[in-house]
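Go through this fold for my students:
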Amino acid sequence: MRMITSLRYRTSNDAAHSAAWQIRETRRRAPRPPETHVEALWLSRAQPERVFRSMNGENVRVLRTGERNRHEGPDYLHALVVRDGVLYRGSIEIHVEADDWWRHGHASDARYRAVVLHVALYPPRRGAELPPTVLLRDQLDAPLREAWAVLLRNGVKAACPISSMDGLADARAAMLSLLARERLERKITRLRRRYDELRTALPPFEAYTQCSWELLARAAGYGGNEQRMEELARSLPLRSMRSLDAVDRFRLAGQACEPRADDWDAREHWRVGAVRPGNRALPRLRWLIGVTDRLCDAAWWRELRRALRPDFDAAALRRLLDVRESAMSPGPMRVLEIAVNVFAPLLALAGQERRDAGMVRDAHLLYVGIHPAPPNRITHALEKVLDLAGPHDSGTQQGMIELHSEYCAQSRCGDCLLNAEYLRRSSRRP
């Protein structure tokens, strides 16, 4: 077997071909499957023992699919491909249609000159020169939608296909609304479980304020410290903190958040990397301590209730959470997050306890009705996947977070209603 360390693919008039495609492809195109389908199908079939037949008649085996490129350039880098007994080391590019090579301008892009294999689902419409190309359509034993459904049932992890499908805006909206409601109900259920646990030893109002203390602590945990802050609030209950004077409260907080230099076990629990100094555990715990006495004040809760009515008063809520002696009081965006993640579930729990349907309804309206909701990394990523332009209301945002945590992050594509709807509507696609 001859060895070629790299291959640089070149054609004449690359720029002219690419420009021509840009002009010709301005016409409206029929809906087509997303590239993530093609990628997932390719990875499921690209085993070393399988022999493909390229468009120019070469026998192709893929010894190594390469590393997924997370930046600009070919889809997979450092691949090993054998074509007619010759081993090539280079990149693999994947497209829905072979013509995408020209449509996307790859022929004139230097980053794509090391492409040793081009994978496409459908054949080219034009006779323009292409890199060595394998047509994946010829490798399928069933229609695309059926092959994709099999992959989903087998738990394939692939990017969501919804972004490139037309006519699913209604399904997306309904799905996100449903997921937002489910997310709130899960939060209420978890809060109810904790409240019932505390009620075995505490009076109702004290159990309720302890729940509030723990939820606020979790909200104060930036950069991956959420769980640790909640655990700290449980180990330093509100009743104990109120029995201390201000000096002892802050001293205890410092001991909890700043372990000794040699105490590596404790230090592991706190994340400090990629977290601004002002958002680390100690400054945020100092703010939490500043609202300790307020959580036990019935008048403060009445003011809070007025701020959380359907005509949500964000400015009033910020004043109620502001601690003058703390430079780390929540900013405007953080106050909105606290309203959604802390006070909406607490309001729903209070409504259930009082059998006040109006209070429960207000909690649901608060949870989904804040606009604009503060962006985060999850919603930013899903905006591109779901083809949703921001800003979003809190209901859409919470639905996106629920979709990511309960489906995307767990590779539960086969259980996702969006994928089910996509498969149903694409039943006529070849």
In short: The longest strand covers residues 86-97. The radius of gyration is 28 Å. The first helix runs from residue 14 to 24.
